[in-house]
Write a structure and sequence with these properties.
alpha+beta; eight-stranded antiparallel barrel; 4 helices; 31% strand
Length: 256
Amino acid sequence: TIMKKLATLMTAVVLVMMSATMVSCGESDDYDYYFDLDRALTEYFNRYGDFGTDDRTTADWFDHYYPYASDYDYRSFINAVNADINNSRTTMARYLNGEWEGPLRMYFKNQAGQTVYTDYQVIWHFELSASSDVKGRGTEYRYNEDEGETRTNFSWCVNGYGGIEISYDPSQSGQDPVNMLIAYNNLDKLSTTHFKGTSVGVNIEEEDDFNLTKRLPQRVKGETTAVAAGKTFGGKKADGKTAPMERNITIKNGHR
């Protein structure tokens, strides 16, 4: 009858619509997933600090919090992380450029093996090699009444973990340079006007606490204005890993 034919036709239409809906829902779920790169970067750097952490930990963190992200999303994230870290390195190097002055307390062991310290007034002069670089040359002027003034040239760079590596030139031919590291988790503050932290000997038994202010805001080579104030750096509260520098003391009871 006509009524039976209409009922059969309506049933077929409903089945076709349900089938189409099921397919379109599945496709829509995949299509609608959106990876928020800016949010991921914010969460990552909030967790691990300005210079992130190692590759394995980074990959595990990403897989845990973004299990539905694609390989493309992950590559985009890693590229953005590296770009952000490189920008931070460049900014730190530009901040360092110029002259800094203030007190420095040098801790070392005396001949009896006791930890002692000596106080100095220092001037650190950093000169950036180029505006986009992260390294350069410098000079340290160190003074107290008992020892008078010493002057030592050095090379420096900001490494990929935010650490500031300083290599003092040997005082005599044939000697090794004295290498110091201001690891990012030992950096209290670096801005355009304030530089405070602890420098630790890499190949010498010495630790220096310093608290310096900008003496001369020097312009970067090739630029006409001083570096503008911006982000303040400091790793004391960072939860991630810092530079994997092994403290290998080779000069017993020695210091600069």
